[in-house]
Amino acid sequence: MTEEAPTDGRELLVAGADAYSRGDTAGALRIFEDAARTITGDVRLGAIVNAASMADELGDHARSLSLYREALAAMPADAPRLRPTALVNMSQALQHLGELDEAQAALEQARALLADTTDQGVLRVSCLLSLTAVALHRQRWADAAELATESLDAAWRFAPHLAGHPLMNLAATYFETGRRDLAVDFAQQALAAFEAAGDRNAVAETQQNLATMLVRVERFDEAEAPLRASQRYFEQAGLGFRAGIGLKTLAFLAEGREDLGQAQQLYRRSLAYFVESGAVLDAADLRMRLSTVAFKTGRFAECEALLAEAFGAYAERGLGLHCAQLDFWHATLLEGAVAASDAPAPELLAQAVDLAVPAALAIDAVRYTLPNGNQRDQWNRQIADPAMRLAFRFAYLSGNGLLLADLIETQCAGTTVNIDRSDGGRAVRLPLELLDPPVDTAGQAGTTALQLGAALAEVAASAGLPVSPPPRLALAAEGRIALDPYIAAAEQRYGRVIRDSRVLTV
To answer: Where in the numbering of this chain does the Tetratrico peptide repeat group domain appear (predicted)?
Structure first.
């Protein structure tokens, strides 16, 4: 009988990786946990990191974070490969738990460790992708577009099989800033890239993300096939977090078809997944959706409670723009109640004004942070303008002539464009010259997903005129600042600067 050659446990890591590649994430977790219990040294640390990654994907984010911290605490300082890997992966769990500051810090530490390396290109791409995800969570669209473009370039050089991820991040960025057709195109290119790479998990995630976009632009029939295909995959693989996202989107689809009973059932199943996994931001978004169903079915107190809970989750994590968008959402619901009443109660109109006006000012201010004229125009037309219109409507319905006059004055003041940043911020007021949209390259034969994505990214991220936040308007005849109490309320409620410190007398 021959004696078996000793092993250091690496075969367990290979077996775990094989299980994951087959879609057996739960099986991979068991293998990695077994490896962590039975082996020592660097291989054990690698097993713990892999187990943490599997736990995160299965939706057990708290367990995942605990494992990452265990690995980092036991890791020697001279672990140049494993430490940045653990930091980048840990940032994913932190993002799911809503701990964005910690996620950012972990990623910046990893990026510094990777700065002088030439042999960890895949990890550099992953780090940039995670930094993009944090920017997306914080709705810092200019940062997200810049990081997504940088990560696409890095993928082109170091890891072409990962190209779908920055393409999908670009899709998310441009969808949320109003460039919906370009966003869908990026998502389709991402899907093609993942299919070419044979990445089953990423294909399913991208199908789900693409379906979500199509549902949000009310292309319901196009959305159903990729949505149901991805849902089958996630449920069979036991990926609870992603299954929760799919249920939320299926519920949104049911709501769009006015099947409110089915929508509520699906939303509640989705919320249970998110609560169980500790995905607080996803749970907050889900409560916003549930609030709409509650409102439509006459459960107004439940609607208010759900919105308050979601607002608290966003505010606690410094996500001011999320809070503003929630208030706009809330005000939109109240608009339905006002429209249904022949004589809306004064307190209802007052509540609507207090929600709609600060929210509109905060949402409108976002366009001044976007890097080019086309993006600012898209944000204004598709996102900020509806919010401002609602603010005007409620100002009119409430009979608040002073507020109405201030809204008109500030909207007519125009945009302030910085012509020269080198002379102390000298600025002049003149109309924006918008960039032309990118040409349609979808029909070009032989264009690969990565090449097309890089070309579109270059156009989409092109620089425009630098724009400052609007100044405060001093009304000389009245001796006051227009909208001053609403500006103060917005900046206090959302924790964001929405007006420049400069004062313009009119």
So the answer is: 49-144
